[in-house]
Amino acid sequence: MDVGLFSQYVMNGLMLGMMYALVAVGFTLFFGVMDIINFSHGDVLTVGAFAGLATYLGLVEIGVSWPPAQVAIVLAVAIVCTAGLGAIVAKYLVLPLKDAPALNTLLLTLMLGTVLHEAIRLFYPLGANPQRFPSLLPTDAYTFGNFTLRIDNMMLLLAGTAVIVGIHLLINKTKLGLAIRAVAQDSETAKTMGINFTLIVLITFAIGSGLAAFAGILHGLYYSEINFAMGLLLGVIGFSSAIVGGLGNIYGAIIGGFLFAALQTIGVLAMPFASAYKDVFAFGVIILIMAWRPTGLIREKISERV
Amino acid sequence: MTSIRFKLLAAVAAVLMLGLGSTTSGAKEKVKVGFIGPLTGGTSANGLGGRNASDLAVRLRNADPNAKHEYELIVLDDECKPNIGVQAATKLGANKDVIAAATHYCSAVAITTVDIYHKFGLPIIVWGAVLPAITYGNTYKEVHRVNGTMINQNETAAKFMTGLGYKTWAIIHDTTDYGKGHDEFFTKYVTENGGKILGRFGVTSDQQDFSAELTKIKSLGPDVLYFGGLTPIGVRIRAQMEKLGLKAQFEGTSGIVSDTFIKGSGELAEGVVAFKEGAPTEKLPGGKVFIDQYNKQGYGEPPEAYGAFAFAAMNLILDTIEAVGPDRKKVREALNKVDGVDSIIGKIAFDDHGQNTIALITKYVVQDGKWTVWGESEYATGKRKLKGM
Q1: Quick check: A295 contacting B, CB < 8 Å?
Q2: Nearest CA to B36 among B18, B21, B48?
Q3: How far is A19 from chain B, CA to nearest CA, in Å?
Q4: Could you report the per-residue pLDDT of B270-296, keeping only the tens digit for each?
Q5: Nearest alpha-carbon partner for B170 in B144, B188, B197
């Protein structure tokens, strides 16, 4: 394989991994603070992408045509929408079920996810069809042999990296992050220390869901297309990535996301005759890793003690 | 008891005799023919269009003073559901007065009912269902079809594309029967016509990311990327080709000939070619006459894409009955011999399986955001060029 081709595969894998990692970080944040699995996360991403698209169409309608402004407003609206949605989910669906079996929350969020994407399918104009997402970033491309480097992909990759670094800083360097970590480690003790438990949970859900919107817009800009079912598989992959990395650990989620993307790419490369089985291959390897390290690649710093 | 039963029997016999008397005393013998299609449900627009078109064929024949028989059309609804279709087919088959029928728009229904027609010996002509196995999956002498299948579609596609000068292909197909069928038949015909398949990739019908497949295809460097599948992933593949700088010509199947594909792909749809069974009605050899006659009757619904095929199927049935008389066996044998008969959809010739071999396939290219018939496009005149030409 020549260098150009190899670089192309690496670039594809990185883009894919970035999206998976952003989704996985959401899963891991929710699990960290509430010990719950929020299966509506993938569909929240879809809501974010559609909110972004609707905002774009609105902006065109009122005559805002400067792409940087469009990107900024689209991102802002999408993130605010899903952050709000995430907080509402936390307040009215997750927190009331705090003392119920975790299975109830899991089922509830699974159903909410169905409601969300079905609502998009039914109520968004022609929502069942694939929707074209506008190219808001410069589309110049440089070609090096078999490698096509597009400016927009590069920008998306950098933006994704920046967001992940930002989350890392937020969790580890700020007072809010300290509170989130405290709640994640031991919510009872955190409460006695004067941390507003409910508020921290709401904020964490808002952050995680906002990340989903960011991933949704990234998805739209990268693929130039969004559809009501896009969150389903992304949710499952993001969840698997979070699990394989070690649920509750942000770095684990990021590693898991990139690992999954690498596996999918390798799947196609290794078995070009059976590319339809790339997901089978990727999930199969994940199962093996899980069997090898049941708590994930990076264990939670504080494992639960009785 | 016995006397009552006897009286009843006598009464029935009397009514029957009266009935027979009235038909024989009329000017012409009354002959029944059937139509089955989806009259309710999601695809009912096509079913109603087909029904009206069949009805038009019968009306025109009854208005013809030279016709030997008077025809009555028995219309049944299959709801595009196999179980309902089986009931409808059984009802027609068991009614010995029905000599022949034009049946089914939905492939799933047609494939389950062919056994029933065979069992009852009822000759039928499929007017809309496209699955190859309806005719090729059996050797039933009763089953015929006027419209083309994905086999004809790919034969036309392969001949056309190799004719333009393309030499090499990469194939992406979804792993449903639809996608696999397209892969199989396109490969067969393109190889026969001297083309070469460099690689093939099966994908799931809800896959989102194709970058790995497309990068591999890019390294193979085919002239054309053939896609056997439906609109949603067609849109994704077209967009991602562009992102990866894959410059091959994009060729689709009937599965992407929809406005949704163009809306989803935007300016990237320009120059995409695809092939579809049938043709816009007004482009058919007898399309104009058909539309005129259809409009004269004042039907509530438009004929839709396959109305002309239902008309041609019914008309062929009526012609055959006129020629050999109202007898299922004779009609079946005569239909099997149909070879080069003129109709509004062009010539009809049935092969050993009852499939119309001169099936009409239309070549489309996207020009300025519209699926345009190839012959009328600027690509055909050379004003615009497909990729790599």
Answers
A1: no
A2: B48
A3: 11
A4: 999 999 888 888 888 889 999 999 999
A5: B197
Whether B21 maps to a domain, the answer reads no
* Same domain, residue pair B71 and B183: no
Same domain (yes/no): B136, B49: yes
DSSP secondary-structure letter at B350?
A: B
Q: Which of B183, B208, B236 to mutate to test the interface with A (most CBs of A within 10 A)?
A: B208
In a domain, B13, yes or no: no
- Residue ranges per structural domain of chain A: 12-229
Q: Is residue B19 part of a domain?
A: no
Tell me the nearest-neighbour CA distance from A218 into chain B, angstroms.
13
**pLDDT-flagged residues of chain A (< 50):** 302-306
Question: For residue B20, is pLDDT > 50?
Answer: no
Residues B328 and B376 grouped into a single domain: no
Measured distance between the N- and C-terminal CA atoms of chain A, rounded to whole angstroms: 53
Domains in chain B: how many in total?
2
Residues contacting residue A222 through CB under 8 Å, at least 6 positions apart: A15, A19, A152, A153, A156, B243
Residue numbers in A near B202 (CB within 8 A):
274-276
* Strand, helix or coil for residue A303: coil
Same domain, B213 and B293: no
User: What's the pLDDT at A305?
Assistant: 38
pLDDT for the residue numbered B123: 97
Quick one: pLDDT at residue B161? 95
Give residue B45's domain range: 29-148+281-358
Nearest to A237 by CA among A194, A283, A289: A283
The pLDDT tens digits for B198-255 are: 999 999 878 888 988 898 899 899 999 999 988 889 999 999 998 888 989 999 998 8
Same domain for B155 and B253, yes or no, is yes
> What percentage of chain B carries pLDDT values higher than 70?
93
Residues B224 and B255 in one domain: yes
pLDDT confidence bin for B17, thresholds 50/70/90? very low
String of DSSP letters for A185-214: H-HHHHHHTT--HHHHHHHHHHHHHHHHHH
Mean pLDDT across B129-135: 89
Comparing C-alpha atoms, which of B227, B188, B184, B182 is closest to residue B207? Answer: B227
pLDDT number for residue B359: 77
- For residue B90, tell me if it sits in a domain: yes
Between B12 and B105, residue with greater pLDDT: B105
**Inter-chain CB proximity B266 and A132 less than 8 Å:** yes
- Residues in chain B closer than 8 A to A146 (CB atoms): 215, 218-219
- pTM of the entire predicted model: 0.78
Mean pLDDT within B2-18: 52
Can you tell me the ipTM of this complex? 0.84
Let me know: does B83 contact B106? Beta carbons within 8 Å: no
Number of H helices, E strands in chain B: 14, 14
Based on the domain organization, do B176 and B325 belong to the same domain? no
- Closest alpha carbon within chain B to A145: B219
B43/B243 Cα distance (integer angstroms): 36
**CATH number (domain holding residue B372):** 3.40.50.2300
Task: Pick the most confident of A288-292, B33-37, B39-43, B238-242.
Answer: B33-37
Give residue A58's identity as a one-letter amino acid code: G
User: Please, which residues have CB within 8 angstroms of residue A127's CB and are 6 or more apart in sequence?
Assistant: A120, A121, A228
> Do B156 and B267 belong together in one domain?
yes
Q: For position B13, what pLDDT does the model report?
A: 53
Q: Taking a contact as any Cβ pair under 8 Å apart, which residues of chain B between 322 and 381 contact chain A? A: none
